[in-house]
Amino acid sequence: EAAASTGGQIMPPVMGAAAFLMAEFMGIPYIDIAKAAAIPACLYFFGIFIEVHFEAKSSGLKGKTWEQIPRVVTVLKERGHLFVPLIAIIYILMEGFTPAYAALIGLGLSVVAGMLKKATRMSIPDIVNALESGARSALGVAIACATAGIIVGVVTLTGLGLKMANGLIDLAGGHLLLTMFFTMITSLILGMGVPTTANYVITATMCAPALVLLGVPLLAAHLFVFYFGIIADITPPVALAAYAGAGIAKANPFWTGVTASKLAIGAFIVPYIFVLNPAMVLIGTTPYLLTMNLVTAFGGMFGIGAAMIGFCVAPMNWFERILFGIAGLMLIDPGLLTDIIGVAILAVGLIIQYRKKKVWVAAGSPTAAS
């Protein structure tokens, strides 16, 4: 839950309100930021899905039967009209209008759509309370946007941002991968216990310049530091989201954080993917190149997810886990040669797994059979 909920802050269109700050900070249209962040966010959630799926299979858990699953048609008939405001907002943003205009139209349509059916109809007090709640929520974003400029100005005028960037580059000896690693550690530390909007302002001013100086595209650099600032909430020792989840589940807070970090392994890998391969954030790509990158990236997340859990269709030994892990890393690394090697290794791993499954099924194992 902590890993999935934290992912909501990196998933467009809202991204914990950070998308609007990014647009203001970088001078890039909001819709471009939302488009660029979509693929990395999907990779992150795919990684969580794969790990949870394999964990459930290894434990012998099964999903609901077809009869227990609510019918899509029935749900749409009852609540489908509530999609209208969301669809309208996305359409308006895609047409290039400002987020403020899209929000205003969405607000009006939400009231109108709710009135279409008695079950979702809002009374006058409900509307007033919703407007009050929305205004209170907007205050935090407005204050963050106002103070972001002040922080950027102070950091720029004092030269602190440039000194920090040069310090990280010097520490890494000018190597991009090492600079990314040190930037990751710095962003994780700076993001501990900090709200989303403040998190972005801090990491963008203190850490992102180091990557930009080494030639990383501005948008990719800002998304990189933002990702690691956010996942500080599920990374021990200060894993606030994991601790909140542990309190609800009455579990050990530290080990809940460790498990959340394990499930969110994609958040540690995806930023490296789009910095080394900017096509993943729609920078300098073509439809063919993007398709190939997507296929290999999702394949890589599949391999890493299986390696982390130690299960695909049958339990894995350490050799198989290493095999799947290497295959995943090879597929994630941009390049035709690494992709071919990754596919070959993954194929070998899957063959071993399916042969092992036959043995387990023959032995009557319910886990393998599921």
Description:
The chain has one domain. The mean pLDDT is 83. It contains 19 helices and no strands. It is mainly alpha-helical. The chain is globular and about 65 Å long. The protein is 74% helix and 0% strand. The protein starts with a helix and ends with a helix.
Structure at a glance:
The protein is built from 19 helices and no strands. It is mainly alpha-helical and 370 residues long.
Topology, element by element:
Layout: H1 2-7, H2 18-26, H3 30-58, H4 72-79, H5 83-94, H6 99-115, H7 124-158, H8 160-171, H9 176-190, H10 196-206, H11 208-213, H12 218-230, H13 240-249, H14 253-263, H15 265-276, H16 287-309, H17 318-332, H18 336-362, H19 366-369
Helix pairs in contact: 2-7, 3-15, 3-16, 5-6, 7-10, 9-12, 10-12, 12-15, 13-14, 16-17, 16-18, 17-18
Distance between the termini: 24 Å
Secondary-structure-based class equals: mainly alpha
What is the succession of H and E elements? HHHHHHHHHHHHHHHHHHH
Q: How many whole angstroms does the radius of gyration measure?
A: 23 Å
What overall form do the CA principal axes indicate?
A: globular
Total number of domains = 1
Helical residue percent?
A: over 70%
Unreliable residue stretches: none
Task: Give the beta-strand count.
Answer: 0
Q: pLDDT average, as an integer? A: 83
What is the overall number of helices? 19
Strand content: under 5%
What's the main sheet like? none
